[in-house]
Amino acid sequence: MLRTTTILAALAVTASAATAQDKPSIAFVVNAASDFWKLAEAGVNAAQAELPDHDLQFRYPSQGTAAAQNALMDDLVASGTDAVMISSVDPKNSTDAFNRIAAQVPLFTTDSDAPQSDRIAYLGSSNTAAGVQAGEIAVAALPDGGKCMGFVGFLGADNAVERIAGFRQAVEGSGVELVDVRGDDVDFARARSNVDDV
Prior knowledge:
Low-confidence stretches: 16-20
Structural class: alpha/beta
Number of domains: 2
Strand content: 15-25%
Order of helices and strands: HEHEHEHEEHEHEH
CATH architecture of the largest domain: 3-Layer(aba) Sandwich
CATH superfamily of the largest domain: Response regulator
CATH class of the largest domain: Alpha Beta
Number of strands: 7
């Protein structure tokens, strides 16, 4: 939660000043509704208590798609949101939308970056390092080598691409083979089916 509070404090500093009687509004937009985001949501709620002079919003898009995320950001900015932090579902196909938002309010990315956009900064951990760590664990668990599968929410998201690359880097030459990576678009039935098919 400290990380979320720190991120929100950084957003608060860069949010444009609202009128004297209004609180600056900062929105944290995630890529899809999933249990993964519950701790971040708790962090935003805790940060709201620590930053009473700001209006902090934690928002899930209606669907885990770039179109739904982009529409949500447009709505937030139109309603007066002063800054946005987002975990991009599809950074390569969201650049124009992100640039449009970044031209209006400070835009940051977290969890899944959109490095080709005009966002101010990516605030988060290294997804490549996380993939390397997972690969090292796989090598330790399979000292004689073996085959494994990868499962992610969104195959095209930068966090997934970077984690997979880090994993491959760590297992290279170890005898551990990443046979395939399957995405589920945060559809729990599809995620279950992906695992059951292995």
